Amino acid sequence: MSTKKQxxxxxxxxxxxxxxxxxxxxxxxxxxxNTRGQDVSIYVTKAGAIITKVLDWSRWEGERNxxxxxVHNSPKEAFEWLERRSRWEGERNxxxxxxxxxxxxxxxxxxxxxxxxxxxxxxxxxxxxxxACENSSVLEGHNVEFVE
Length: 148
Fold this sequence. Notes:
Layout: E1 5-9, E2 17-31, E3 36-45, E4 50-58, E5 66-72, H1 75-85, H2 102-112, H3 123-135
Antiparallel strand pairs: 1-2, 2-3, 3-4, 4-5
């Protein structure tokens, strides 16, 4: 794990999260000709708590960026949170959807984050999770499902 330092993770709709720790994983994914994207960051605190952050961003006029973050006591909690919170991209549906205006496109992406019960990690979340599991003893081995 890299050097621990004071970090503040910003989030919308709640208190920001301040802690001493380090970033152990990150992932990013862009789409719509690099005008929209998602950045996912994973941190481990000095005490071993896991912080996950999902930033959905857009360069489109009228669309706002969304920043969500949470504190987790276990790798399982962190993974499940990412499964629920990283769906903004609409990647769960492999078909390409073309919209003639920005508002319907954003509405479609928003709906994708609400639809479906199956677990799903976005591309950015998967990259960040794998990165964190390689870089942190707290998360080591949690990027695979062991089957006997």
